[in-house]
Amino acid sequence: MQRIMNFFKEVAREMKKVSWPSRKELVNYTAIVLATVAFFTLFFAIVDLGISKLIRLVFE
Predict the structure, then answer these.
(1) Cα atoms in the Cβ-side hemisphere of radius 13 Å centred on 44
(2) What's the whole-model pTM score?
(3) Average pLDDT over the chain, rounded to whole?
(4) Is the Cβ–Cβ distance between 29 and 21 less than 8 Å?
């Protein structure tokens, strides 16, 4: 039981050392991630549509 308590004490100590982003940085990083995901979703949807049409043309 003592080992578990020591573990959580050390976790708490290490979490105090973490450099957390500011609110502005967090909002910017989140916007970048969402924009990147949206871009790649659109890109792969267009590529998939193009490949599907190409395969239909080949097999018809």
Answers:
(1) 5
(2) 0.66
(3) 96
(4) yes
Sign, CA dihedral 24-26-31-32, equals: positive
How many percent of the chain have pLDDT more than 90?
Answer: 95
Cα–Cα distance, 34 to 51 (Å, whole number): 26
Residues 48, 53: Cα–Cα separation, whole Å? 9
Three-state DSSP at 18 gives coil
Q: CA 55 to CA 18: how far, in whole Å? A: 52
Coil, strand or helix at 60: coil
